[in-house]
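ARCHIVE CARD
Drawer: 12
Card no.: 0347
Subject: one protein chain, sequence and derived structure
Cross-reference: see card 0346
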Amino acid sequence: MTLASAFRLNRGLLLDLADLALTLAQRGGANYSDIRLGETRRESIQAREDRLRDFSESSERGFGLRVLVDGCWGFYGAPRLEESSIREAVRQALDNARAVKPIQAQSIVLEELRPVESEWLMPMDVDPFDVPADSKADWLLAVTAAALESGADYASASLSFAKEERLFANSHGSRIFQSRTRTHPQLDATVVDKATGRFSSRESLTPARGAGWDYVLSCGLLAEAKRAAEDARRKLDAKPVAPGERDIVIDPTNLWLTIHETVGHSTELDRALGWEANFAGTSFVKPEMLGRLRFGSELMTIVADRSQQGGLSTLGFDDDGVSSQFASFPIVEHGVFQNYQMALGQAHLIGLPRSNGCAYADSPASFPIQRMPNISLQPNPSPTSLNDLIADVEDGLYVVGAGSWSIDQQRDNFQFGGQLFYEIKNGQLGELVRDAAYQGRTVAFWNALDGLGDASTYHLAGTFGCGKGEPVQSAPVSHGAVPARFRKVMVLNPEQGEA
């Protein structure tokens, strides 16, 4: 598949509209301008028990023009791809930039931007938007049937797809075409004790991926449906967890969300600067901590990248036109905080020379803001299995699958649930328990890390849509992790409270 064949939109039209916008912006006094033009397609399909419940499709075309005038951003976006809209956008964006000047405390300073002409197409065997609807429906109904046959009283399954096609162009001469697709198969199995009315559910552990229909067929959700129903039944019959301070081993299917909330969001520079405060707060990680904060133990190395195969944030360039090569960096290295995630025009605010490729706009007509690349916990270089981690725990828990979560406005105090909690007794995995969660503070928690699995235990998970900004934007991001052991973590029983 070539990039040209992957694009539904007329590439010549996009280039003409981009050239018109950038030329008019320069004539109008912009010191710099860039534009994103394209389309985002989405599809969502849901089934429950033996029926298809929902099938929805949407397509959003448009553009977003950004101009820099005397150190102030101006922006205008519209859901149209036509010359008259471009001309209006230039006028509005220039007016917006000039209106900001009297109230802007500090000028935006851009690093030197090298012009780039490139195209990037995500590898994909089968485009999910080319697969017939009845094939998708049949697959979902097979998943729910497998769960019901294994003892679930209720079962729901869904498929979500998104495809982005973009042209990025700027006044320095960059012209970048990109196309990527993401896919998320999901399942929820529920069992009910009809005598008492109590119920228990188990959601699937299958992650979203930057992939096509081929991932749906190979992800193993059909087999997991059977296990999910069995696990839900076992959860219903499990004893409540005893709250208290325990050692815990966290599976990567759960740990990815903890990484996302405590490390990913806390090391976003716009949060640290106070620019992002409306959606789940700012951050305790302040610029003066760069290179100094002991974020975690020596075992903790967390890196950012846009290159992992299947990663939801994997692509060639961010929405500032910055190459993904700059988005490969350690956030925390051997426990020490080393780098923020940054978008264009932020680096100079903390004395650094350039952005590191962390900008994203969730639609062509949205302003690009700082968003996470793939962010992953690095494996132990020494051979270490999950069993090795469990073997050194006398009394603890093994946590599997992401569940409910809560975190404060500084990304410090947190609480995380899960899908499955197993007792660990004298180095052996024991019975399933229910009604469990773990609680902590970010720095103390990561400094309690004392064991990691090796590369053979690595698992890539993530979220199809992480909310941020005002108005809110949704971004996809993956997090890789290995099983990790933490000492003396507070375990809660939310039904009973602390010990």
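Annotation on reverse: DSSP finds ten helices and 23 strands in the chain. Confidence is low (pLDDT under 50) at residues 1-5.
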